[in-house]
Amino acid sequence: MNDRIYRINRILSIANRCFYISRDLTSSGHYDLTKQNEFLRFSGLIYFTTCVVELAKLFQEKPGTQKQNIYSFIKNLDRNNTSISADDIERWKGDLQSLDSKVVGKIESLRNKLFAHLDDDYLDIIRESPLSFKEIQQLLDVANDIVGELNDKLETGVAGLEYMGSPTELQSAYDHLTKYRELLEIEKKNIS
Predict the structure, then answer these.
(1) What's the distance, CA 180 to chain centroid?
(2) Comparing 169 with 147, which gets the higher pLDDT?
(3) Chain segment 8-42, per-residue pLDDT in tens
(4) Which residues have CB under 8 Å from 14's CB, separation 6+?
(5) What separation in angstroms does the CA of 27 have from each of 23, 31, 112?
(6) How far apart are the C-alpha atoms of 53 and 169, rounded to whole Å?
(7) Residues 156, 1 contacting (CB under 8 angstroms)
(8) Half-sphere exposure (CA, 13 Å, Cβ side) for 101?
(9) How much of the chain, in percent, has pLDDT values that exceed 70?
(10) In the 8-state DSSP scheme, what is residue 82?
(11) What percentage of the chain carries pLDDT values higher than 90?
């Protein structure tokens, strides 16, 4: 059981980090710079893709598809474990069932038909399954709450699943890139 919860923690940590980085790279406050810089635009897409793939590992319910599936982990918890009550297990199942199945379906569709495999109808998938950061945040919130409680009850020693960076770090990177771009423009004018 410890190996599975460790893997779930690792996947959730990666999903959290990728979510915040992709959201920050595409936020309206930085959109002009990202739009003008292919590296930043593509980086945001890569982090978003990774976030979706990691969330699919946690939420895809098809039998045998994911060993780190959070649903199957909770369903298979040892009810004799004194640190986890049957009430906790039922509450977590309820939390998972309360998630919007359409959002989980979007995650699965994007992962299966666009990111992991490129189906012929991939453009339809993009149009029909737009996935918002708000929807991803809802999945992460539920997963973070459940896994955080599991860590406490199972005494895994894992603390905090939040994004390790800070908004000020990203802002600092944008500020440096903006200054660099301004210096390049000045240098171009001086050469001309």
Answers:
(1) 30
(2) 147
(3) 999 999 999 999 888 887 765 555 566 677 787 78
(4) 50, 54
(5) 6, 6, 26
(6) 25
(7) no
(8) 2
(9) 70
(10) T
(11) 14
Q: What is the mean pLDDT of residues 97-120?
A: 78
SS3 percent helix, strand, coil of the chain, rounded to 5, is 75, 0, 25
* Cα 81 versus chain centre, distance: 30
Handedness of CA 171, 9, 66, 149 (dihedral sign): negative
The tens digit of pLDDT for each residue in 66-92 reads: 677 888 888 888 655 667 888 898 899
Query: How many Cβ atoms are within 10 Å of 179's Cβ, its own excluded?
Result: 10
Q: How far apart are CA 40 and CA 177, in angstroms?
A: 10
Beta-strand ranges (E) seen in the chain are none
Q: Which two tokens stand for residue 34?
A: 């990202």
Domain ranges of the chain: 2-163
User: In this structure, are residues 139 and 99 in contact, taking their beta carbons and an 8 Å threshold?
Assistant: yes
Q: Encoding tokens for residue 46?
A: 């890569």
Assign 140 a pLDDT band (cuts: 50, 70, 90). Answer: very high
Mean pLDDT within 159-178 = 58
Q: Evaluate whether 153 touches 1 at the Cβ level (below 8 Å).
A: no
Which pair of structure tokens corresponds to residue 114?
């666009």
Residue 37 φ then ψ, to 5°: -120, 110
The type of residue at 34 is T
Q: C-alpha distances in angstroms, 161 versus 8, 17, 98, 125, 183?
A: 11, 9, 22, 30, 38
User: If you average pLDDT over residues 142-159, what whole number do you get?
Assistant: 83
